[in-house]
Amino acid sequence: MSSFMNLSKVLLGIICVVLLITVSIKSWRQSIRALIVTETPKVLSTIHKDYFDDGRVIVFAKVKTSKGLFIQIYEKVTDGVSKSLADIRLPDNRDGFFHYRGQATNLALEDVDGDGRAEILAPTFDANLVAHLNVYTYNSATEQFEPLPSTAVDY
Q: What is the distance between the alpha carbons of residues 12 and 35, in angstroms, rounded to a whole number?
């Protein structure tokens, strides 16, 4: 019985030492955490709109992942299938809100440059909690969403 107790104490001691070493070495800790914790992106806000006026439903989703905030843009095809159109990484990691048409929102579509097509409005906060309104416009020549320069905004 005492040899069994001694063996269990030795095994417990070895396990404790291995755990201590694992916690101490950052790369090991991250590897083990990645095995245990599976992170899924968190959808913060969505907008469904016939953005190109051609009958296709385009979904704009503001998403938070471990890598930061993103605007994911995709076309809803059929039967739950979607086609990715763009994945825009926002410059800041903290989600923001602003007052838009009487409601607080963290994602909006509005024509701010007067060209007849809505731009994506996505507020964020930087590391110093300074608010930023990120505005992206669709460039039909390149078929991509690009940051809208502040000089292009139609006041």
A: 23
DSSP state letter for 149: P
Pairing relationship of beta strands 108-110 and 103-105 according to DSSP bridges: unpaired
CB atoms inside a 10 Å sphere around CB 134: 19
- C-alpha dihedral sign at 150, 151, 152, 155: positive
Is 135 in contact with 124 (CB distance < 8 Å)? no
**50-96 tens-digit pLDDT:** 999 999 999 999 999 988 999 999 998 877 788 999 999 999 999 99
pTM (two decimals) = 0.72
Which residues partner with 23 through β-bridges?
none
What span, in angstroms and rounded, lies between the C-alpha atoms of 110 and 85? 19
Q: Which amino acid does the sequence have at 59?
A: V
> What's the Cα-to-Cα distance from 72 to each of 11, 24, 106, rounded to whole Å?
50, 37, 14
Query: Are 102 and 117 members of one domain?
Result: yes
Domain span at residue 25?
2-36
Is the domain of 66 the same as that of 112? yes
